[in-house]
Amino acid sequence: MLSACTLSPDYQRPEMTTPAQFKQAEGWTQANPSDALARGAWWELYGDAQLNSLIEQLNASNQTVAQSEAQYRQALALVNSSRGALFPSLDLKAGKTRSSQGTGSSSSSLSNNSSGIRDTYSTTLGVSWELDLWGKLRDGLTANEASAEASFADLASIRLSQQSLLVQNYLKLRVMDEQKRLLEATVAAYERSLKLTQNQYRAGVSGQDAVAQAQTQLKGTQADLIDLVWQRAQLENAIAVLMGKAPAEFSLAQTEDIPTLPQVPSALPSQLLERRPDIASAERKVMSANASIGVARAAYFPDLTLSMSGGYSSSSFKDWISLPNRFWSVGPQLAMTLFDAGKRSAEVDRTVAVYDQTVAQYRQAVLDGFREVEDYLVQLRVYEDEAQVRAEALVAARESLRLTENQYKAGLIDYLDVVNVQTTALSNERSVLTLRQGQLVASVQLIAALGGGWDGQLEAEPKP
């Protein structure tokens, strides 16, 4: 009956008010998670084989994930150590002792050794078992198991974060490749405009100011094109490090396709508590802190240890292991602190305060999770509305540029009018690409905020 005692409070998940749905989810097109996701590989939603390959390399070689995985293995080791404390320990000792005592001693043991030096050979086999009367050891095991599960959730959270960073950098790089193609095409168009303006200047149709304006516009766009080189290189280097490679060992060739914007799987607010690894980690830390209260309370009660030992001791190696030289001892030991000036009480207060802290951290993690999902939902919804307007503006800008260039070629307007319209058209083209990048990045952030491929279970790794 005593061995069934435990002094930790009964654990209950901290109460948290969960809304029925996300505020910004109204009118949001929802995908079917079971059809859209393949075993949690959420990055496959973007339909890019090269991106899938990069994520596989990240999963295998990312050093931040490797650090977290090592921390998880440390937590598992602590669990195994705590579990071992529930069982008896068996010790074997064997040794030789050489000792000396002054000649003035009255000890009869030195009567046969005039030099006062004596050799002692001993071997001892001992068994010790601390009975867990008050649940201290079991509460310690429970605390470490919860900490190991929190560590596993931290590992999942870090892996998801690193995957999210890589996907975001990859999508930005692909949009930047499209920006590069746009600027290259624009530079070619401006070069044709400059050549046309120079011909008209030589024919006396245009002034030298038109030539200067065309040159200024061309050189400015060429500078923008050059500026993309270092920006793309930084994204490429970031992807290399995320995969555990030196930047010099990695490069990404330019492609002509931008991954499509996927339908993001939906989740209810209540499901978020199970899907997000950071929330799962916060809750398991509450479990660990709750069990630690029982460990602290058990210090008020005595510890009972059963021990037994036996062996042989002799001054002669020849007769060391013999029946006359044997010895043994057996008996319980009860240990209890009678006065510690409030040390145990302070430790209980500390563990209760730690528990309250972890409860607040859990609730804050839940609130942050709700906020992130709401933020990215409204961001994607606004981006969608903005994309329609910008697409219409781009069509109008392209038509205006076509008409203006025709008027200039016919000599009806000055080149300054052409420059202004060309600048507006290019600005609209780049704005559309920037918006496309924002949509893709926000979709990645929303998937991560919804927990990515996390399912709240620990079967993917050995259970502690």
How does this model look, in words?
InterPro entries: MdtP/NodT-like, OMP_efflux. Pfam families: OEP (PF02321). Mean pLDDT is 85; it is low at 27-39, 107-111 and 455-464. This protein has helices at residues 33-36, 49-61, 63-84, 136-202, 208-242, 269-275, 277-298, 343-409, 415-449, and strands at 89-100, 117-131, 303-314, 326-335. α2 packs across α4. The protein has a single domain (23-87, 139-301, 348-449), classed as Outer membrane efflux proteins (OEP). A 4-stranded antiparallel beta sheet has the order 1-2-3-4, with no helix packed on it. It has 464 residues and is of the alpha+beta class.
Second-tier CATH architecture: Up-down Bundle
Count, helices? 9
Task: State the low-pLDDT regions, or none.
Answer: 27-39, 107-111, 455-464
Tell me the major beta sheet.
4 strands, antiparallel
At the fourth level of CATH, the homologous superfamily is: Outer membrane efflux proteins (OEP)
Give Rg in angstroms: 37 Å
Q: What structural class do helix, strand and pairing data support?
A: alpha+beta
Strand coverage percent: 5-15%
Shape type: elongated
The tally of strands reads 4
N/C terminus separation: 27 Å
- Can you tell me the CATH topology? Outer membrane efflux proteins (OEP)
Give the class-level CATH name.
Answer: Mainly Alpha
Percent in helix = 55-70%
Strand order of the largest sheet: 1-2-3-4
Can you give the mean pLDDT?
85
Number of domains: 1
Q: State the order of secondary-structure elements, H for helix, E for strand.
A: HHHEEHHHHEEHH
Family: Belongs to the outer membrane factor (OMF) (TC 1.B.17) family.
Biased composition (Low complexity): 99-115
Organism: Pseudomonas fontis
Protein name: Efflux transporter outer membrane subunit
